[in-house]
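Hi P.,

Sorry for the delay on this. The queue was packed all week, but I finally got your sequence through. Input first:
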Amino acid sequence: MGERLAPRAGEIAAVARDILEDSGPTALTMRALADRLGIKAPSLYKHFPDKNALEVELIAQMLEESAAALEAAEEREPGSLTALADAYRAYALSHPHLYCLATERPLPRAALPPGLEDRAAMPLMRACGGDLDTARSLWAFAHGMVILEIHGRFPDDADLGAAWKRGLRAFHP
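Then the structure:
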């Protein structure tokens, strides 16, 4: 984040992230952000041309952080799909609003820093031996489980840990 943004833009993005993480994407408005910063909303546009640009920055942060989490899991347990999936789930559940912002609509690929999406995918690709279909299938499973968990779509008595482990065994018996 620091290399991409000027200090004031970094501060704005940090406050925007606080709003997002605390209250969800609907609470993240340019007016709410300006109010939290104690400035007038038009001042924000000196640093971000629009709300979409601000959201792209937050999505980039999510991809950087999740990539770092997966890289750390890969370093601890090379080749372990379970370690990667568990790191993915832990990150998503720790940052549910940021995760949803980044994954519930089309990814703004053209606006992201070059190579960031690939970096985020590479630990999984390596663990899947470069098999793109297996990597996509595993990601779809992990994302589906996580997003349903975030949105409270499982019954209260559901053993999500057991479902998670069983699903992962389908990819790595």
